Structure formats: C-alpha cells, structure tokens
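During the reporting period the student researcher (J.K.) took over the structure-prediction task from the postdoctoral fellow and processed the backlog of single-chain submissions. One of the processed entries is reproduced below for the supervisory committee.
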Amino acid sequence: MKSLAAIDRAPGVFCIVVTLCLGCSETIRVAAETNPSTDFGALRTYAWRVQEPRIIAPALPPKTAESLDTRVRAAVDTQLAAKGYGRISMGKPDFLVDYRMEFKIKSANSFQEYYRYWRQGGWQGPSEAFVFGYEAGMLTVALTDPRTEQPIWRGTAERVVSPEVNQAILDQTVARLFEKLP
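J.K. obtained the following structure tokens:
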C-alpha cells in the first residue's frame, strides 16, 4: 500500500492514471491497484473531488479542455453506474473520484519503441516518430475514502493520441480501466 500512500501525498497526482491513446489502435495498456482493506461491497455512492478540469496539455485550447473534461467525467460516471455506484451532489459520499489527464510528446529512440508506438495505433513512419516524436495521453483516475483521505483504488490506461479525440475510443479506454475495479 506504500505506492498508493505516496500518490496521496504527491501534489496534483491524487488520481488514477490512465493513459489514453485516442488513435485507431485497440492496444490499451491498463494497470490498477486496490487498497486491500477496502470493502467495496459496502460502497454505494460517490462524488467528484474537484470540479475544474484536470487536463495537462499545453497546446490544448481552453474550450477543448473543457469539452474533454465533460466527456471524461461522463465516461467515468457511466462506468461507475454500470458497477452499481450512484453519484450524489449533496450529502456524504462513500468515496470521492478524481482524475488527471496528461498529454506528452514521446520519442521512439529504438526500433522496439517504434514497434510499441505502432502497435498502440501510431500512424507516423519511423523517421517522423524518431525525429519529431509522437503524442501520448495518460488518464489517471483515483477513488479516495473521504473520511481518511486514503486512496482505495487507482487505475491507469495508456494509448497513443491521434490528432482527433474520438469519443468511442475514450469510452473504450475508460471501460477497460474500470474492468479492474472490484
């Protein structure tokens, strides 16, 4: 549980990291951690921890970030509802939800890295991926106990990002992430 506690103390990283590859690939790298002392059967309701967008993408216009924030929250709400959790806006929730989405430029420094990029839906040729790099997105979602402020679950998913943010790919990525939620 050390790794979850470390995330709890890291500023701005109190989320489950899911890297979104909004490209054409079906390859999504997903990982999750669960606090073993959490009784998920006793949890029924949740609320969002913060209301402002948690998207780190310097080149993304504010209106696009707001739209993406709305779509991420809707995809997370859909998956939590499918698991039987209800969102509340008043009262005391059983857990809080937070997320962070980050877009970074990565480069393929070897043929092995290029192959990994290509399998994740990369569309650039080797020379472009080696010289100019490519964009990868990461979404982090965290569930937290509001009484103790301790993380109870976190998951990550990673994909290569295409020039268009496709809602179907976003939904698929979030669904794959929440497959790991007990």
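The committee noted the following: The first strand starts at residue 16 and ends at 18.
J.K. will present the remaining backlog at the next meeting.
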